[in-house]
Amino acid sequence: MTTLNHTGMSHTIFRLLGIPGLENQHIWISIPFAISYVTALLGNSLLIFIILTRCSLHEPMYLFFCMLSIADIVLSTCIVPQALAIFWFHAGKISLDCCITQVFFITSTFISESGILLVMAFDRYIAICYPLRYTTILTYALIGKIGLTIFLRGYGTVLPIVFLLKRLTFCRSNILPNIACKHIVLARISCDDIQVNIWYGFFVLMSTLVLDVMLIFVSYVLILHAVFHMPSQNTRHKALNTCGAHVCVIILFYGPGIFSVLTQRFGHHISPHIHVLLASAYILVPPTLNPIIYGIKTKQIRDQVVHVFFTKQT
């Protein structure tokens, strides 16, 4: 299980505990995890299928929906299957390389999803403030470049974390009290100084998620300013309605994450299983509810879903 290096014994195999303190309840906890994962897979896959196969939905807003659904599938797949293996089969063993790979994909996909939400706010700003130039500004070529930039930003900012973790010696413990490998959770069981890891993690947080939240806020300030200067109340209502689904998704994405960060920073008296459950919520909830929200709030998608199932029945 261990290998020898110049600083002593370093674990290369780790054990994920799942939800610490609630091991006896793992079977019951697995039920909402499994339901959420199946819902996320089916809902997001259906959304992607509808958007890609319906020419009427080949507009910038729907293409960004498609990117978000792809990120949701990747994000939930990085965690839930392994969590279910722990809950059902006690299969918590994971190698160091697999653990670091999981850290990389979870973190980079989460950052990419935040970037997509930012671009969707920009999309709504263009649609409301410059409706006549909407399609000329957001061309397919620009959308492709935006998508590539979003994913390169996610992978590029997280890649140094791989090397920061690889340099550590894990001689303290090989027990991870979580359902998945996380950067700081893994770094804290090492015997080395992790100040670089902590500060780089803080830099990544500030330069991506916090910056995205600030820019989304600015976008919606500009959107509201434009909306309330519209002459017609009906026009104002339609403009705000187009932003409804996006605002709901933003709250679902950032809300649990912010709450989880605050409890980890200030809630030292809170039980470990609460921290793990909160950290799981901001990974599980958005992929599950995003396609439902867009299906309900977006008439064009709702109509196409009805058409798909009606066609299958005839």
UniProtKB/TrEMBL annotation:
<feature type="transmembrane region" description="Helical">
    <location>
        <begin position="134"/>
        <end position="155"/>
    </location>
</feature>
<feature type="transmembrane region" description="Helical">
    <location>
        <begin position="239"/>
        <end position="262"/>
    </location>
</feature>
<keyword id="KW-0807">Transducer</keyword>
<keyword id="KW-0675">Receptor</keyword>
<dbReference type="InterPro" id="IPR000276">
    <property type="entry name" value="GPCR_Rhodpsn"/>
</dbReference>
<feature type="transmembrane region" description="Helical">
    <location>
        <begin position="103"/>
        <end position="122"/>
    </location>
</feature>
<keyword id="KW-0716">Sensory transduction</keyword>
<feature type="domain" description="G-protein coupled receptors family 1 profile">
    <location>
        <begin position="43"/>
        <end position="294"/>
    </location>
</feature>
<keyword id="KW-0812">Transmembrane</keyword>
<keyword id="KW-1133">Transmembrane helix</keyword>
<dbReference type="InterPro" id="IPR000725">
    <property type="entry name" value="Olfact_rcpt"/>
</dbReference>
<dbReference type="GO" id="GO:0004930">
    <property type="term" value="F:G protein-coupled receptor activity"/>
</dbReference>
<feature type="transmembrane region" description="Helical">
    <location>
        <begin position="274"/>
        <end position="294"/>
    </location>
</feature>
<keyword id="KW-0297">G-protein coupled receptor</keyword>
<dbReference type="InterPro" id="IPR050402">
    <property type="entry name" value="OR51/52/56-like"/>
</dbReference>
<dbReference type="GO" id="GO:0004984">
    <property type="term" value="F:olfactory receptor activity"/>
</dbReference>
<keyword id="KW-0552">Olfaction</keyword>
<comment type="similarity">
    <text>Belongs to the G-protein coupled receptor 1 family.</text>
</comment>
<feature type="transmembrane region" description="Helical">
    <location>
        <begin position="198"/>
        <end position="227"/>
    </location>
</feature>
<keyword id="KW-1003">Cell membrane</keyword>
<dbReference type="Pfam" id="PF13853">
    <property type="entry name" value="7tm_4"/>
</dbReference>
<feature type="transmembrane region" description="Helical">
    <location>
        <begin position="27"/>
        <end position="50"/>
    </location>
</feature>
<feature type="transmembrane region" description="Helical">
    <location>
        <begin position="62"/>
        <end position="91"/>
    </location>
</feature>
<comment type="function">
    <text>Odorant receptor.</text>
</comment>
<keyword id="KW-0472">Membrane</keyword>
<dbReference type="InterPro" id="IPR017452">
    <property type="entry name" value="GPCR_Rhodpsn_7TM"/>
</dbReference>
<dbReference type="GO" id="GO:0005886">
    <property type="term" value="C:plasma membrane"/>
</dbReference>
<protein>
    <recommendedName>
        <fullName>Olfactory receptor</fullName>
    </recommendedName>
</protein>
